[in-house]
What we know:
Structural class: alpha/beta
Amino acid sequence: MCAILDTSARDEVFGDNRTPAGEQFFDWLERPRARLVLGGKLTEELTTSNSFEKWAETAIQDGRVRRFSDDDVVAETKALARGSKGKSNDRHVIALARISKARILYTRDADLTNDFKNRNLVSAPRGRVYPTGDSQNAAKRRRQLLNQTNLCPHR
């Protein structure tokens, strides 16, 4: 399964004080079948964190990170800018989802959440946003989401 980590949630996963959601996501990233997708501007944003950059070096070697062409992400971002009615300023994340076919997003950005769930922007299957709450129900939904296998055709 493939996922995208937005910069707004990066420190919850790779920071010193992980949230319960961040801890669960990090544990999932350590699984052999988990895949984090990177490309374009998102790669630049995430690698401003030393702890993420160190993790990514090892994860790339282990095959737990899939890199997509920066040029392809930029081209798709430009195409979205011409035709999209999305609300967020993170078209590069939507572009990466469309190119990679990753359908799970971990973000704290409400506008990006709405765009990612918009079937006109992310479809077949629709995008799913990783629950960030601290409730038992949110923890259960996170486990269910991370155990799905149909949300990434590129394993």
